[in-house]
Amino acid sequence: MVGTVNTYRRVIALTGPLLPLISFLARLPVAMSQFGSVVLVAQTSGSIATGAVVGGTLSAGQVAFGPVLGRLADRYGQRPVVLTAAAVNAVATAALVAGALGHLATAPLAAVGAVAGASIPLIGPLARTRSVALAHRAKSGEGVVGAVHSLEGTLDEVSFVLGPALVGLASIVAHPAVALGGAAVLVAVFATAFALHPTAAVTAGGPARARTAGRRTRHPGVVHAVRGSLALQGAMFGACQAGIAALTLQLGVPEQAAVVYAAMGVVSAVVGISLGALPARFGLRLRWRVATGAALALSVPLLLTGSLGTLYLVVTVLGAAYAPHLITAFALTERVVEPSRLAESMAFAASSLVAGQALALPLCGRLAESYGPPAAFAVAVGAAALCLLLALLTRVPAARTHGAAFIPAQQTGSPSVDGSSAYAGR
To answer: What pTM was estimated for this model as a whole?
Structure first.
């Protein structure tokens, strides 16, 4: 336990204590926007289908343009890309709120939603990229790099639990427009703060960096397999959401759906932060296989779930498998891609997760409506089985075979003697 705490202290020493908080608050709008847009448009238009269309275009914009923003961040640096995206996203989100309240037609409202999705600042992937770069710049060991992935994965999990909860709370207390308007404010303030934080210098980008970066051996098979595995996990998320919503509706307690899903997210986050305690001998290849195997084994009981108590138990336990898979997938991405394309690759991985969820949710909703909740849960089980198959069949390098990217000292704070960054305390 003491060793784990010390490891995370070293991570915070690299980033400074404010960066994780800023990046967490800047991630919340991502989790709030998709759900909030569906709820807002459904309420103002009186049509769930219209809400789903707008929410779908928002997700499509994020999936299509996420890797583009990542590539731009690799080329030009995080600061100008995040500042521009944050400004566009704040305006587009505010326009979406105004359009919904003004009863704008579906087509133009969906177009605004697409712009809002395409301009979502990729705080999660970019924060990972930045923290990993800081760790390598300080010549930290694999344990610290692993703790970086665990911390970033936990921040993602908590944001995706808290975001929809805030939307629900705002909808009950006031109006969904308050939640989406709040998301615009969070983007404007905290994504901007993330861009302006001194650690942004470590990811300054530019052609000189691309030429001088030490290149690792690229493993295309691993990259594609990991993206496929994340898309399948997204499908599990969508299937579980649809199945939970259908079963709680069937039981006459639809208001419990969000609470059940949140419980799964909380357990996932707790397990995710605990991964920092795993010794280095539990390599990424083993972690990937164990996580996907656990996801399959723990998802099968969903098929037999018929009561609220059982649903809480099964879904909460299943959450323990989710964060390990997500954290391992992003860590594998960081290990095998070229350092000069890390932000793009992280963004592509995140977009794969969103795409899987966006495609599975409406499909599983229809299955649950036609054949009952077990039909949606069966999709989750099938996706878990395919994840395990990918993990078993993919040849993963057992260790890092090349050094990390060289980042000039003048672009960052020089590491101190104890390996901590000059950004500590900022």
So the answer is: 0.84
